[in-house]
Amino acid sequence: MTNYYTHATAEGGVKTTRFEHDQLVALLEVRDGEAFHGFTLERWDATGQSYLLAEENGVPDALPERFLRKFGEAIAMDARKHLQIGLAFTCDKLRPDSHGGEYIRVMPDGRRGRVPREDAGRFAPASAVQVLQR
Prior knowledge:
disordered C terminus; alpha+beta
């Protein structure tokens, strides 16, 4: 049996106080529906930044709306246009087309969206094939 995973890491953190971070964690733990999002919010105390990650099965479309609105406020307070999150689709069987990925963005108003394909190449590292072709 093949196991599929969606790993997710943010491009960086968002400045938060410890209190704001705790509020965001509480909002993240509230389920809006049946689907579980699989994300956690970690904090680097040394930098005062909170960041999103999913170790196994992140489902960005299932993130709670109230969390996204509050997280968007933190993004705006940090003077960012958006927070970009990289998603890696993997599985434990190495077969053609079994792996991939994409980027999503969380906007200051709490909306989330996919990075347009034409922009994806600017953010994605070169593949091994592209490096070998140079």
